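From the pipeline queue, job 12 of 40. The input is one protein chain; the requested action is below.

Action: predict structure.
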Amino acid sequence: MSGIYTYNSGLPLRIGSTSTTGTSQSSYNATSSLSAAPISNPTGALVSADPAISNPTMGMWFNTSVIKVLPAFTEATNAVQYSNWTGPRFVNVDLSLAKQFPIRERLRLELRIDAFNVPNTLTPANPITSPTNTNFGKSIDAAAGTYGRQIQYSGKFIF
């Protein structure tokens, strides 16, 4: 029997937007006491407080009321990344069980069962962080590369 346990506490989120109407990307150089390092804000978003909430859900991952679209020709003075504002955590357990059965002196049969995502947990994708998107603040999909529980059976004849 063997297994792999994987845990990731979540990647940092950044306020993002594909639109920078009325703003110059080179004019931003924002800092915040909540941010680990100064990160530029080319997104056209105005943040009035830390957007992190204590119990995020897929329908409301962060406090969207503190993030507004920046008015045209206005320079942003806030950070786009906060130290306690992270995406969904990732938890996964994979297990394998294998047994070899001797048939003759040089012949063996190996039976194996592999189970992936044993607890069958959903890992949501990072939430939408663009204030102009209608799903702003929501995680609307499963994370890429994650699947429900999968079990595979295999046999190998060794000679």
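Job complete. Residues 2-158 form one domain.
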